[in-house]
Amino acid sequence: MTREILADTLEDIALLLELKGENPFKIRAYRSGADTVRQFPGDIVALAREGALSGIKGIGEALQQKLHELASTGALAFHENLKAEFPAGLFDLFKVQGLGPKKIKALYEALGVDSVPRLKEVCESGEVASLAGFGKKTAEKILEAIAFRESNADRFRLGDVVAPVEEILASLKKHDDCLRVEVAGSYRRAKETVHDVDFLVATGNPGGIIDHFVNQPWVDRVIAKGETKASINLSNGLQCDLRAVSNSEFACALAYFTGSKEHNVAMRGLAIEKGYTLNEYRLAPREGSEAPEAPVFENEAQLHRFLGLDYIAPELRENTGEVEAAAEGDLPKLIELENLRGTFHNHTVASDGSNTLEEMAAAAIDLGLQYLGIADHSKSSFQANGLDEKRLRAQIAEIRELNLRFRSEGTKFRIFAGSEVDILKDGSLDFDDELLGELDYVVASVHNAMTLPEAEMTERIIKAVTHPGVTMLGHLTGRLLLERDPYAVDIPAVIEACAESGTIIELNCNPWRLDMDWRWWKYAVERGVKCSINPDAHRTTQLEYLWFGVKQARKGWLTRDHVINTLNLTAMESFLTLEPLS
């Protein structure tokens, strides 16, 4: 039993109650309870198991009893009974972009839509188009969303696999037969989505550790099991492969199984030039070559040095010039997580966040940050409870008060008052210049009219980023990984416009977005554009998304000098042309 299982079960109950058309206050109580479980600072699972949740704000008596039952028995009868009222396939509909409980309920009741195949059928037949509240365009969008999901069915967001991967890794490390173990493949390279996860272990007893791997509680299915390799599926479908090698083979094997394929081809070509063959187990002289025997490499850095290269970080291994740069000594000193001093683009309960200003600030301080930018939604994002002018000015005043309190307490920390201002369809901004001028910074983002032609969307965004009141551009392409394609936009043209106007481009490190894509950052840096790594946090725990942001920044070859929020508080106040608090 984990915190996430408790929270996810409450979220699931809220969805089921919404499908049934239950009281909105009851539904909200379960969602609020899920948020409380996720954010509670103590061991919420232990407290639930002991029946000791009394007094925790947001968890009433009914929820306390349900959480106790779930934590102590591993199941919740209320939840199971609710699920039994609906076909199992119905829950797959929630994974289709653009479908919420109300639409799913209407589809189920009117057309008997109880699975994705049935949904596809009624969209193609035209039945959905005749349903009140839908129409032909809605049916077309649903079919596009289904096709998108089908084409990405075997892929997983990086953010969705971190927890199980780290759990498996920790289990392998504790095993007596494990000499060392690493995660390889696209996970180690921090690709935004992964197909499967490769584990590599050095051991003198492959059989013992293979047996351990396939017999853990997280194993849903054993795909294959051999003497030195095993493959399993987790309950979410993720395939995990374990390869066992000797300790002397580990460095070459780790380099090989980390990839990418294109990087490995370049590395093998370099080895051939020097008279060697390089494979997943060793570096050896080519037949007929006069090259001396290679030593046993303790790690990848020694392998790289032997080939005349500086060490190439895993995130760079995509064959985008890293081998040539390593040979010339021109690899950048990549940004590290500890280089970050603060971050921007975060939300509170004022719009669609789950925590107050004070709670977000406290969480940022706990992470060792010196400043936090709050950018709640603007008024046109009504679906996110966007702030109008009056509410935003009240929030600015509240932030000023909190900052005065920090100063009086001797806390070297500052909240910057910002707004995530909607870029309207014509490229104008959601607030007038007077209000924009009252803010410490502005994030400009697209949240609607995402189907504009590329030229029109590009013109719209360029008009916004060149506005003197805009500090940074939020989630440039609007993509939701494995859920929604980027909208059509000329990214180089937007980068050029930001370079001219001095507008920062955000690396939105919410793992559903990771936008701007890492593939564009080298070009942005060449044009002189700065990056801000922002978590788009809607609750305190999501500030930890900064880890994903740094990983993506490293893939984009970014150093601390390229990232604006590596500046300390004093330097950031100067950059934003603000008077220091002290």
Quick summary of this structure?
With 582 residues, this protein is of the alpha/beta class.
Overall description:
The radius of gyration is 26 Å and the shape is globular. It has helices at residues 3-20, 24-39, 44-50, 61-73, 77-84, 101-111, 116-125, 136-151, 158-174, 185-188, 206-214, 250-258, 261-273, 300-306, 322-328, 357-366, 389-409, 433-438, 454-465, 491-501, 521-526, 546-555, 569-575; strands spanning 156-157, 180-183, 193-194, 196-202, 219-225, 229-234, 239-245, 276-278, 283-285, 342-343, 371-374, 414-417, 420-422, 443-445, 472-473, 504-508, 531-534. By secondary structure, it is of the alpha/beta class. It has four domains: 3-151, DNA polymerase, domain 1 (Orthogonal Bundle); 156-245, Beta Polymerase, domain 2 (2-Layer Sandwich); 262-328, DNA polymerase, thumb domain (Beta Polymerase, domain 3, 2-Layer Sandwich); 337-575, Metal-dependent hydrolases (TIM Barrel), CATH 3.20.20.140. The chain is 43% helix and 12% strand. It contains 23 helices and 17 strands. The model has no long low-confidence stretch (mean pLDDT 93).
